[in-house]
Amino acid sequence: MKRARLEQLLQSFADRKILVIGDLMLDEFIWGNVRRISPEAPVPVVEVVRESWFPGGSANVARNLREFSPHVSMLGLTGTDSHATQLKKLLTDHHINLDCLQEDPAYQTIVKTRIIAGHQQIVRVDREKKTALTPLQMDRALRQIGELLPSLDAIIFEDYGKGLIQQELVDRVIDVAKEEEIVITVDPNPHNRLAWHSVTAVTPNRSEAFASAGRPWSEPVDPVEKDSALFEVGRILLENWVTENLLITLGEQGMMLFRAGEQPFHIPTRAQEVYDVSGAGDTAIALLTLALSAGATAAEAADISNHASGIVVGKLGTATVTPVELITSFETHNAQI
User: Fold this and answer.
1) What is the DSSP letter of 243?
2) What confidence tier does 337 reach under pLDDT thresholds 50, 70, 90?
3) Of the listed 23, 153, 282, 303, which one is catalytic?
4) pTM over the 0.85 mark
């Protein structure tokens, strides 16, 4: 991709209006040092130095989008607890539209707490309870989406399997969005077996892809072009989901793009160093969606998504990518820019 083409797409990103539908979370990080083992049990004692909080889950997708476009909206569910207040403040500080956010006093806002000593995660503590939308909440969500549709360029379904994404919601949103020719992308959860029909792109990682295809896990093959099990999974998912594009993320092997009637297209990883894979999938689908909605080809969009993921895994915590970092990544990897 030439520099002029990348800059043209990045300029278009700023005009894209995108709605993220999915499970919101608050990511909490407790940073400290370990100098001794507890006398009470064979575990390290973490001396806390600082704490930080970031939007997590689908909210992290919105945060990644916000680096490139000021027109980002969230549809999801929170409680009315202190964690919800903190999460909404973080999203508001990032200027993410929360008009479609619903509050439920009976709902426990999802919090994932990571305790980190140096650069090493010691333990993660999850506070969550899977909860589906009530009929009233579903009706309100569909009404809000209907009001937004005329102004949208893309919709992202970010399914963390916490209960928000249900087949009725998926079917009704896809039906109306396709009429408006809106780009629809999906980050699926294999534990929430949904029928993804006629969407623009689905972006599972390797393990999610095998689970979704009902195939037993198969270790990666090097070179990836000889990974027959992966190719079979790609074929099955293209057929089952009837999606235009299937982008399977492969960690250190990069990504593989599948399209009906075409040969699979492999994009090698662009990661220099890997410190933390938290949120890499969020970054991948955010940039893929921006690119597709801006008129990029599937191969161009996958390449941009791959570069963005390679940047974010080199950062600690749930991080984001900037336009300058993206351009620099293309330059660093001699991508004819």
Assistant:
1) -
2) very low
3) 282
4) yes
